[in-house]
Design a protein that fits this description.
about 180 residues; mainly alpha; 6 helices
């Protein structure tokens, strides 16, 4: 036998068995390390993709929610809208009535102006004409006996008298026509 192998056979077998056991363990660890850590990396990447997908979905839903809230904020409540429409109808009715009243008042003003102008012309015409008793009294020149008509002319010429007496001229002055209804022309 060889003297280089000085270890007993049983020890040699035990060392070879232990070496084979360690080599098998290293091979098994090397064989399983890559798939285990690769699957872990794959799972992590898969979970990151799912998280990114959910984040995108959450952002889209958040944007949609913000858009819907802004639309809802700009949307008018139906009850408030109906109330505003009722108030608008009341306002329109009041406006139409006010326009009718304005037209009626304008017509009355035009009629009153025409009537005042007509009565002013009549008054001016009657004031400029000498009355019949005044024309008869002026040729006589009697200072003691003045007819009633000449006194009314003197009153009309005086600055404080605005019009002849209604009984003498047969018409009412313009101030009186605004208080009473005037007869037609």
């Amino acid at each position: 036998m060889d003297e280089s192998n000085r270890l007993p056979a049983w020890l040699r077998r035990a060392l070879i068995g232990a070496a084979l056991f360690l080599a098998g363990g290293l091979i098994a660890f090397g064989y399983s390390y890559r798939p285990l850590h690769g699957s872990m990396t794959w799972k992590i990447e898969e979970l990151e993709q799912r998280i990114d997908e959910r984040n995108r979905t959450n952002m889209m839903l958040g944007d949609e929610l913000a858009r819907l809230r802004s639309q809802d904020a700009s949307r008018i409540d139906p009850i408030t809208f109906a109330q505003v429409e009722r108030e608008l109808d009341k306002t329109n009715n009041a406006l139409v009535q006010a326009e009718k009243d304005l037209k009626r008042a304008e017509r009355k003003r035009i009629d009153a102006n025409a009537s005042a102008s007509r009565w002013r012309k009549r008054y001016e015409g009657l004031r400029d004409q000498p009355s019949a008793p005044a024309a008869q009294a002026s040729p006589r020149n009697t200072p003691t006996a003045e007819p009633i008509g000449s006194a009314s002319i003197k009153k009309a010429d005086s600055p404080d008298a605005a019009s002849p007496a209604p009984a003498e001229s047969g018409i009412l002055p313009p101030e009186a026509t605004s208080k009473t209804s005037a007869p037609g022309p």
